[in-house]
Amino acid sequence: MPKRFITLVFMLAVALIGSAPAWAGDLYGAGKEVVDGDEFVFCAGDACENIRLCGIDTPSQGKLGYQETIAALKDLVVGKKVACRPLGSGSVCDDFRGLDNRGRTIAQCFVEEATVDVAGALISERHACDRMIDSGGYYSKDHPEWRCAKFGEFEVKP
What we know:
Helix content: 10-25%
CATH architecture: Beta Barrel
Order of helices and strands: HEEEEHEEEHEH
Number of helices: 4
Number of domains: 1
Strand content: 25-35%
Distance between the termini: 70 Å
Strand order of the largest sheet: 1-2-3-6-5
Radius of gyration: 19 Å
């Protein structure tokens, strides 16, 4: 084989390997049930795991807006195709969020053929706020009123 052809094939292989898409680590499956306002059970076939949505805070159980948030998250993910991008795979929280101490996968998740960011939808509907310490302000960059007022103290702002 000519040396030029081998060089061309080698360069093409390097280019293809080096250009792996950011979504290569995404998880694909379906939402099974909601655990909390920012957590749901995600199943890919028979394997299920808890997903904690990165970058948001939602009302705690017993707080104003909790039931509405649970209903909104159910509407978004339960029984729907979901794609989740775990920390370290290109999520909006990669540079800001550490590991979870409860055994959950922290991820940015999408529905409707990856066109709707679940956390973003909850925030825009006022069921969640942008937890800037985790997202770096990703969700509130154009809407400062969507920022969480104080860590762990979610409040719905008009």
